[in-house]
Amino acid sequence: MRSSSGKGRAGALRIVCEKVVGIDLGTTNSAVAAMEGGSQRLSRTPRGSNGDRLVGQIAKRQAVVNPANTFFSVKRFIGRKMAEVDEESKQVSYTVVRDDNGNVKLDCPAIGKQFAAEEISAQVLRKLVDDASKFLNDKVTKAVVTVPAYFNDSQRTATKDAGRIAGLDVLRIINEPTAASLAYGFEKKNNEPFSYLTWGWYFRPVLFISYFFAVLEVGDGVFEVLSTSGDTHLGGDDFDKRIVDWLAATFKRDEGIDLLKDKQALQRLTETAEKAKMELSSLTQANISLPFITAAAEGPKHIETTLTRAKFEELCSDLLDRLKKPVNNALKDAKISFNDLDEVILVGGSTRIPAVQDLVKKLTGKDPNVTVNLTKFAPGRVPIITGPGDTGRGDDQDHSRNTTLPTSKSEVFSTAADGQTSVEINVLQGEREFVRDNKSLGSFRVPQIEVKFDIDANGILSVAAIDKGTGKKQDITITGASTLPSDEVERMVSEAERFAAEDKERRDAIDTKNQADSVVYQTEKQLKELGDKVPSDVREKVEEKLQRLREALSSDGGSTSDIKDAMSSLNQEVMQLGQSLYGQPGSGAATAAGPEPADGGADTIDADFTDSK
Questions:
Q1: Can you give the CATH number for the domain in which 48 is found?
Q2: Three-state SS for 511?
Q3: Which range marks the domain in which residue 477 is found?
Q4: How many CB atoms are located within 10 Å of the residue 1 CB?
Q5: Distance CA 527, CA 530 (A)
Q6: What pLDDT, in 10s, does the model give residues 30-41?
Q7: By CB neighbour count within 10 A (0-12 exposed, 13-18 middle, 19+ buried), where does 135 fall?
Q8: Could you tell me if 332 and 215 lie in one domain?
Q9: pLDDT at residue 367 above 70?
Q10: Closest Cα to residue 373, out of 20, 35, 75, 18?
Q11: What's the number of domains the chain is made of?
Q12: Which of 25, 131, 258, 442 is the most exposed place for a label (fewest CB within 10 A)?
């Protein structure tokens, strides 16, 4: 923190410096990054006995043996009603249920509890931020979080709720294409204007591509999103599912067993499909080996087969065709042609599929750029459409798609008939012409009024209505019918804080035990190597303290503080051992004789950090 003042100022200006991280809360993988000294430092999804909350790779590795309690692709359910996710709920190994309000809950039989998708996402966010705090050596409480550009108001609000449950102040919710575009723009060495299409995510007119498309224009540090478009039901998981279905259908044809009904087998098929898809990005064929995938009366069954790139492209041909329409729509809305694009940028793992890159080149006539790092973030803009329903006919569009945010617009509405005492304001989101075809975000009733719509930079909508006769005002913040009630969010926040405290205590206990185990091992090793060189009185004291530490470690009721005390006592005796041998109290040689420090022993289960330059 620093302060400064100057002439003519009423008082000192205090500037508080605090690290803000960017978080990509992905469907399959997540990452966190921060800017330091102009370069980005980042960590990817972290890795942690019964009842423990494991996040990242370590959770993924045990999914095969614990499919009902391993949650993935949770972003598909956040902020949505059960009626909206019928198909998605069939594609996961855990059980998705409906609560009394029609919202989505994820069942966890291991602890007999049902979680909201926001709670699971909050666990990921908390772990990412904890690891970032450790890596940056600074407490992190603020973040910018990316969401798909197609996320509606309910899903955006639910994402902010997840951040709040995780103890985070979410400063901004930004679109993934915008984030990728900013990352790309920041890497440019000059300020010359450019446009680009992102297939998935990009600028200039640049086209960004990742199964969601954005056209952006960049120049003089200004990033303008000209248009966005996409297929809300198309992503990398859909390509994986085609391989899963092919493997399951082939096995059922040959063996008469439906693997899709076996949750453990389905989890193994899903992991293998993702791996095969990735291999086919660089190889022409992938060997698939799944021993003991299931068992029949005659014995165990295995899968041994080969998937060629040509067969994979055949399985996914209709998915590739679905990519064409959003690209054309993005350019049409931006009012530019492929010839106007300076660059086409691909972002996201599944855009590495050769068939996708070939399709991009065929559509645009340009070789796509695949160099953008998805873990780079910055604030951006988002599109949304709102309007009050008007007596059942087409609605008045106050904010059309691709409107730059934040934005505000007002309009005066009259009653439909003389003597009518009130007007019902129904706020809708969507791009269809008629009210019934769009999603209702909320409604309220007032007399003849002026309606004002405000959409903040997070894409969250507020609506105010003013009675033109009396000046009386009524307003609401649209939170979406499927977001969590405020009291439930508060309960989840308190519960998450309690879990965080428990996790910290458990981690401290694990760290201490790991360090103590190492001290015991190093001390025993030294006593053995030094043999008769150690004076008998010194050896006796060391062995006494060593035995005390062993007992503290083996005791079921032993506390972390007991282990720390015993370890400290042993370390002091080991220092005396070094001094008696070398006769150099406090010297480096004496220190070297002590056991090697074992700090961070539990870090073996933490995320691996990479310094991205």
A1: 3.30.420.40
A2: helix
A3: 383-484
A4: 7
A5: 5
A6: 788 877 655 555
A7: buried
A8: yes
A9: yes
A10: 35
A11: 5
A12: 258
